[in-house]
Amino acid sequence: MEVCGIVYKDAGKVYYFNRNDLTLKKGDYVIVETEKGEQFGKVEFVDDRNIEYELKNVLRMATKMDYDKYLKSLKEAKDTLKVATNYANELGLDMQFVDASYTFDHKQLIINFIADERIDFRELVKMLAAKYKVRIDLHQIGVRDKAKEIGGIGPCGRPLCCTSFLNRLDTISINMAKNQNIALNPNKINGSCGRLLCCLAYEDEIYSECRKNIPQVGSTVKYKGKEYKVISNDLLAGKYTIDKDGEEIEIDIREK
Prior knowledge:
By secondary structure, the chain is α+β, with helices and mostly antiparallel strands. Helices cover 27% and strands 30% of the residues.
């Protein structure tokens, strides 16, 4: 099946759609059919993929009028955040609103927010629905999602990966930092969101592969008939250092 990858916003999650016999290329704007109604989207890729579930269709290419309507919708959705914030304050709800968006057909308003605990926002939904006369979808997101929406600069000096190219936020574990011999300093391994850096996952597989042939620090190995303790290793260089009674020897696994 010829499949289109569609995003609703830059660096957003990629959703799969049936190309529906339309001639499309990366960067084209389209109108797609979703469970929540029609959406305005941008083509990320078009290729053949085996998808085991039924896909919704790309309905048509977007027109200039569609694009203008989309821009107007963005402004209207942004204005709703001020109203939602005022309503939440009236109700005493401890919520921080991140962003809002309308479906292209303006039948649903989707608002994302963060909070330290679960929020009973049923009364807020009623107030917003009464004002805007559309279906309201309030969605609580995490701090990593917030960073993706807001953006910023990472410790590497480049724009955050999640706002630049990452379409999916995978699970990151502290073991990834340990696996790469990175000092477990929160200032070094945490990103702008306060969670572990997404980039810890980029080279984790390589480090895991390198570790297969290099003994762990603190373990005991035999070298020329004697037992030595491993005191350090350089995974990417394929080297480790052993010690016995002050005699240190560097071993290069490629020279064995």
